[in-house]
Design a protein that fits this description.
This protein has two helices and five strands.
């Protein structure tokens, strides 16, 4: 399960979005409703989620922003690891959980 989106950079309509300027600081719930006018990024978000779940980089590269220079980056926290899309690939890192 995706717990949090912490970064979307140079992707579709999202130029430089981080968790501080996202609704609920990017924290996802078990069920999330995404409702917005056409052309605001709903399909782009769904491609991020699908690419993340399947590790299919081609899906996310469909919407790389051509209007700005810089690398496409996406960051998310799943149950026990951080996933990051950089340099056209997904990488994961184990999280150090403090109890």
């Amino acid at each position: 399960m995706i717990n949090k989106i912490f970064k979307i950079k140079n992707y579709a309509r999202f130029n430089n979005v981080n968790s501080t300027n996202m609704p609920d600081k990017g924290i996802m719930k078990r069920v999330n409703l995404i409702y917005a006018p056409n052309g605001t990024g709903k399909t782009s978000l769904s491609l991020i989620f699908q690419s993340l779940s399947t590790k299919n980089e081609k899906l996310i590269l469909k919407k790389k922003s051509v209007l700005v220079e810089g690398e496409l980056e996406v960051g998310a926290i799943l149950d026990d690891k951080a996933e990051e899309f950089k340099r056209n690939q997904w990488t994961d890192k184990e999280l150090l959980l403090v109890k």
